[in-house]
Amino acid sequence: MICDICPRGCRAVRTAHEGAGVCGMGLLPVAARAASHCWEEPCISGEKGSGAVFFSGCNLRCVFCQNHSISAGRQGKEISIERLRTIFSELISQGVHNINLVTATHFTLAVARALEPPLPVPVVWNSGGYEKVETLRLLEGKVQIYLPDLKYSDSKLAEDLSAAADYPQTAKAAILEMFRQTGPYELDENGLMKKGVLIRHLVLPGFLDNTFGVLDWIADVFRPGDVMVSLMGQYTPNGQGGPDRRLTAEEYQRAVDYMKALGILEGYTQEVSSAKEEYTPPFDGTGV
């Protein structure tokens, strides 16, 4: 297959087991962990956890990635579409609230097949936001919750830190398509998300203007009740590049104050002290 699945449009030749291009992956899914995960936002994790399947490879090159061993190191195990479907069933039998597909963009074709017929719990598409609208349409009706990042409003910063100068306009178009599919978010009686879009943004130390630009766009495009926003302060230097310090409490508070001043009140903020390595689970093949 000559691949045109993601915004890279690198047209790499991908077979079932071998890949090229930016993601470097074949067409069959490669996963590094499948287990209940309790470190998502409360409306996703709930009390019993989210059934997270962590896929290997990525179409972004974020120098500060906390999942570097699987996003760039490609650690993981190749599985069939049938096995992926079985993994979903195993997680559901454990009582998870949803199936959480983490960084599955480059495996969209296989994942879409594994989601047929529909699952009895909501499906979460948990991605870096760098998606192609035409590819997202393959997931319509199969994914109930979109959990995208909106990392950048600054194209130069996107190029410097993720090798994707087109990220701002690409991610914005993707999020609009996600919202078209789901409509305004809905929570159940226990506060768990049933459907909708929850936009994540990680505040980067020293780049508050980038954050302000992201929040400006959200406030301009969406009305109260449309989407939820998670403003994250857990940036952690990893020695691979990017800012070499953690976010200060003052920087994060300025971001929170700006978000509130724009009227964005539905979602989540964090304590800056919550940046912990335990948010990154061991990618040891559990559940795969």
Largest sheet composition = 10 strands, mixed
Helix/strand-derived category reads alpha/beta
Low-confidence stretches: none
Relevant CATH superfamily: Aldolase class I
Give the number of DSSP strands: 10
- How much helix, percentage-wise, in residues? 25-40%
Gap between N and C termini: 26 Å
Report what the structure shows:
- The protein has a single domain (30-279), classed as TIM Barrel.
- 29% of the residues lie in helices and 17% in strands.
- It has nine helices and ten strands.
- It has helices at residues 42-45, 68-71, 81-93, 108-114, 133-136, 155-162, 167-182, 208-221, 249-261, and strands at residues 30-37, 50-55, 77-78, 99-102, 123-127, 145-148, 186-187, 193-202, 228-232, 267-268.
- Strands 1, 2, 3, 4, 5, 6, 7, 8, 9 and 10 form a ten-stranded mixed sheet that branches.
- Strand 5, helix 5 and strand 6 form a beta-alpha-beta unit.
- Helix 3 packs across helix 4 (108-114) and helix 8 (208-221) packs parallel to helix 9.
Give a brief rundown of this model.
The protein has nine helices and ten strands. It is an alpha/beta fold.
Q: Descriptors for this entry?
A:
9 helices; 17% strand; globular; 29% helix; single chain; 10 strands; ten-stranded mixed β-sheet; TIM Barrel; alpha/beta; 288 residues
List the helices and strands and how they pair.
Blueprint: E1 30-37, H1 42-45, E2 50-55, H2 68-71, E3 77-78, H3 81-93, E4 99-102, H4 108-114, E5 123-127, H5 133-136, E6 145-148, H6 155-162, H7 167-182, E7 186-187, E8 193-202, H8 208-221, E9 228-232, H9 249-261, E10 267-268
Helix pairs in contact: 3-4, 8-9
